Amino acid sequence: MKLDYVPVGRIVSVHGIRGELRVLPLEGEADFLTGFQTFYLEGQPVSPTACRVHKGMALLKLAGVEDRTAAEALRGEELLVRRKDAHLPEGTFFDGELIGLDVYDGETGECVGELVKVDRYPASKVYTVRGVKEFLVPAVKDAFILSVDLENNRMDIRVWEGLVE
Question: Would the pTM count as exceeding 0.85?
Answer without folding.
Answer: no
